[in-house]
Amino acid sequence: MLIGAALGGAAEFFTPKARAIGHALFWGLNFGLFVVTSIYLGMQTPKARAGMAMAAKWGPFLCVVIGAMLVMVDLSRHVLLDLGLAGGELAMYTDKGGLSLVGRIGITCTWVGVALVASGVAWFADMPNKVAKQWEALTSSDQV
Protein backbone atom coordinates (compact mmCIF):
# COMPACT_ATOMS: atom_id res chain seq x y z
CA MET A 1 0.00 0.00 0.00
CA LEU A 2 2.79 2.42 0.89
CA ILE A 3 4.76 1.47 -2.21
CA GLY A 4 1.63 2.01 -4.28
CA ALA A 5 1.15 5.46 -2.78
CA ALA A 6 4.79 6.34 -3.46
CA LEU A 7 4.50 5.23 -7.07
CA GLY A 8 1.06 6.73 -7.54
CA GLY A 9 2.44 9.84 -9.21
CA ALA A 10 4.31 7.71 -11.72
CA ALA A 11 1.15 5.89 -12.85
CA GLU A 12 0.87 8.09 -15.94
CA PHE A 13 4.13 6.63 -17.25
CA PHE A 14 2.99 2.99 -17.06
CA THR A 15 1.36 1.14 -19.91
CA PRO A 16 -2.13 -0.20 -19.24
CA LYS A 17 -0.71 -3.72 -19.01
CA ALA A 18 1.99 -2.68 -16.51
CA ARG A 19 -0.61 -0.78 -14.51
CA ALA A 20 -2.87 -3.86 -14.44
CA ILE A 21 0.02 -6.02 -13.23
CA GLY A 22 0.84 -3.47 -10.54
CA HIS A 23 -2.76 -3.30 -9.39
CA ALA A 24 -2.97 -7.09 -9.19
CA LEU A 25 0.32 -7.33 -7.29
CA PHE A 26 -0.67 -4.64 -4.79
CA TRP A 27 -4.10 -6.25 -4.36
CA GLY A 28 -2.50 -9.63 -3.61
CA LEU A 29 0.17 -8.18 -1.33
CA ASN A 30 -2.36 -6.19 0.69
CA PHE A 31 -4.80 -9.09 0.84
CA GLY A 32 -2.09 -11.44 2.09
CA LEU A 33 -0.81 -9.02 4.72
CA PHE A 34 -4.32 -8.26 5.96
CA VAL A 35 -5.26 -11.94 6.17
CA VAL A 36 -2.10 -12.84 8.09
CA THR A 37 -2.48 -9.88 10.45
CA SER A 38 -6.16 -10.66 11.05
CA ILE A 39 -5.46 -14.34 11.71
CA TYR A 40 -2.66 -13.45 14.13
CA LEU A 41 -4.82 -10.98 16.05
CA GLY A 42 -7.77 -13.37 16.04
CA MET A 43 -5.67 -16.19 17.46
CA GLN A 44 -3.84 -14.04 20.03
CA THR A 45 -6.82 -12.05 21.31
CA PRO A 46 -8.38 -14.69 23.60
CA LYS A 47 -5.12 -15.18 25.50
CA ALA A 48 -3.53 -11.73 25.27
CA ARG A 49 -6.70 -9.82 26.16
CA ALA A 50 -8.30 -12.30 28.59
CA GLY A 51 -10.46 -10.81 31.29
CA MET A 52 -11.32 -7.67 29.34
CA ALA A 53 -14.83 -6.57 28.45
CA MET A 54 -16.03 -7.82 25.06
CA ALA A 55 -15.56 -4.45 23.28
CA ALA A 56 -12.07 -3.91 24.70
CA LYS A 57 -11.11 -7.50 24.03
CA TRP A 58 -12.23 -7.77 20.39
CA GLY A 59 -12.14 -4.07 19.42
CA PRO A 60 -8.61 -4.12 18.00
CA PHE A 61 -9.34 -7.22 15.92
CA LEU A 62 -12.55 -5.69 14.55
CA CYS A 63 -10.76 -2.43 13.72
CA VAL A 64 -8.14 -4.31 11.72
CA VAL A 65 -10.64 -6.53 9.88
CA ILE A 66 -13.03 -3.69 9.00
CA GLY A 67 -10.12 -1.42 8.08
CA ALA A 68 -8.62 -4.09 5.85
CA MET A 69 -11.92 -4.55 4.03
CA LEU A 70 -12.21 -0.80 3.50
CA VAL A 71 -8.68 -0.58 2.08
CA MET A 72 -9.47 -3.42 -0.32
CA VAL A 73 -12.49 -1.56 -1.79
CA ASP A 74 -10.51 0.76 -4.07
CA LEU A 75 -7.86 -1.83 -4.84
CA SER A 76 -10.61 -4.20 -5.95
CA ARG A 77 -12.15 -1.46 -8.10
CA HIS A 78 -8.83 -1.07 -9.92
CA VAL A 79 -8.51 -4.80 -10.54
CA LEU A 80 -12.11 -5.08 -11.77
CA LEU A 81 -11.51 -2.27 -14.24
CA ASP A 82 -8.19 -3.75 -15.39
CA LEU A 83 -9.82 -7.12 -16.04
CA GLY A 84 -12.65 -5.51 -17.98
CA LEU A 85 -15.23 -6.82 -15.51
CA ALA A 86 -16.61 -3.34 -14.90
CA GLY A 87 -17.08 -0.32 -17.09
CA GLY A 88 -17.27 3.41 -16.68
CA GLU A 89 -19.52 3.10 -13.63
CA LEU A 90 -16.39 2.38 -11.57
CA ALA A 91 -14.30 5.19 -13.07
CA MET A 92 -12.30 7.25 -10.58
CA TYR A 93 -12.78 10.51 -12.49
CA THR A 94 -15.63 12.19 -14.31
CA ASP A 95 -15.41 13.27 -17.93
CA LYS A 96 -14.60 16.78 -16.67
CA GLY A 97 -11.57 15.52 -14.72
CA GLY A 98 -12.97 15.76 -11.20
CA LEU A 99 -13.40 12.87 -8.81
CA SER A 100 -16.51 10.81 -9.40
CA LEU A 101 -18.70 9.57 -6.56
CA VAL A 102 -16.97 6.19 -6.86
CA GLY A 103 -13.60 7.95 -6.70
CA ARG A 104 -14.57 9.85 -3.55
CA ILE A 105 -15.87 6.65 -1.97
CA GLY A 106 -12.65 4.82 -2.89
CA ILE A 107 -10.42 7.50 -1.40
CA THR A 108 -12.55 7.72 1.74
CA CYS A 109 -12.59 3.95 2.20
CA THR A 110 -8.81 3.79 1.78
CA TRP A 111 -8.01 6.52 4.30
CA VAL A 112 -10.56 5.36 6.87
CA GLY A 113 -9.33 1.79 6.38
CA VAL A 114 -5.68 2.72 6.89
CA ALA A 115 -6.60 4.64 10.06
CA LEU A 116 -8.60 1.69 11.39
CA VAL A 117 -5.84 -0.84 10.67
CA ALA A 118 -3.19 1.35 12.31
CA SER A 119 -5.43 2.09 15.28
CA GLY A 120 -6.35 -1.56 15.73
CA VAL A 121 -2.74 -2.72 15.68
CA ALA A 122 -1.69 0.06 18.08
CA TRP A 123 -4.61 -0.74 20.38
CA PHE A 124 -3.81 -4.45 20.38
CA ALA A 125 -0.15 -3.72 21.17
CA ASP A 126 -1.22 -1.31 23.95
CA MET A 127 0.89 1.42 22.35
CA PRO A 128 -0.74 4.41 24.12
CA ASN A 129 0.13 3.02 27.55
CA LYS A 130 3.61 1.96 26.47
CA VAL A 131 4.35 5.40 25.02
CA ALA A 132 2.97 7.11 28.14
CA LYS A 133 5.17 4.95 30.39
CA GLN A 134 8.24 5.70 28.29
CA TRP A 135 7.44 9.41 28.30
CA GLU A 136 7.02 9.34 32.07
CA ALA A 137 10.35 7.53 32.47
CA LEU A 138 12.10 10.05 30.23
CA THR A 139 10.64 13.09 31.91
CA SER A 140 10.58 11.98 35.54
CA SER A 141 12.38 14.21 38.04
CA ASP A 142 14.29 11.23 39.47
CA GLN A 143 16.73 11.19 36.59
CA VAL A 144 20.07 12.87 37.02
Query: Low-confidence parts lasting 5 or more residues at pLDDT below 50?
Result: none
Oligomeric composition of the shown chains = single chain
What string gives the helices and strands in order?
HHHHH
Task: Report the end-to-end length measured between terminal Cα atoms.
Answer: 44 Å
Based on DSSP secondary structure assignment, what is the total number of beta strands?
0
Summarize the main sheet.
none
Estimate the strand proportion: under 5%
Q: Which helices and strands, and how do they pair?
A:
Elements: H1 2-7, H2 16-48, H3 54-82, H4 101-124, H5 127-139
Helix pairs in contact: 2-3, 3-4
Could you describe the 3D structure shown?
With 144 residues, the protein is mainly alpha-helical. It has one domain (2-139). It has 5 helices and no strands. The chain has helices spanning 2-7, 16-48, 54-82, 101-124, 127-139. Helix 2 runs antiparallel to helix 3 and helix 3 (54-82) runs antiparallel to helix 4 (101-124). The N and C termini lie far apart (44 Å). The mean pLDDT is 87.
